[in-house]
Amino acid sequence: MTAYLQIRPSSPADSAALVAILHDTFESTWRPQLSPAAVAAYQQGNRPAAYVAERGHLFHVATRAGAVAGLVDWQDDFVNALHVHSAHARTGAGTALMDLAEAEIARAGFPAARLETDTFNARSQAFYGARGYIEKGRYPDLEWNSNLTTILFEKVLGRA
Questions:
Q1: Among 29, 103, 97, which residue's Cα sits nearest to residue 68?
Q2: Looking at 40-44, 58-62, 138-142, which range is the least confident one?
């Protein structure tokens, strides 16, 4: 993709695209790892729409040619979510969103950024590892009730 990448705060008009990104990453990354009961609970609860309704106004988005390609959400020193639609994977959207989150976390005075991923997600582990994140702990992922293991990562940040 050669169109210019723009990072900006999300707007209410982005809601449908944000939900679509979360559904896309669920289908491509999470669903194959989850128990049938966890998949059913996800589908019944419409988790992406609830998440966007609760925190979407705090997201920053990456757009290309007007289309929302990805999102990042952080609070204090913790990155809650980084999602890039599969159609925009490996185009720099995730890198640009993480650059922003890390810069803002540092600017807020936090010495490090933290985030979680699961052990099955080798692609995200490689991405965060290449950015300087190191593993700080492992524990059961209770969110999905599917016998998954969560990894806590941390990266020491320089001064902004």
A1: 97
A2: 40-44
Q: Compute the CA torsion angle 2, 101, 153, 94 (nearest 10 deg).
A: -10
- Report the pLDDT averaged over residues 59-82: 96
Q: Within 10 Å of residue 132's Cβ, how many Cβ atoms?
A: 13
If you classify domain 5-156 with CATH, what class do you get? alpha beta
Cα within 13 Å of Cα(135), Cβ side: 12
pTM of the model: 0.89
Query: Residue 160 has which token pair?
Result: 């902004």
Q: Give me the amino acid identity at 153.
A: F
Angle at 10 between CA 6 and CA 15, to 5 degrees: 120
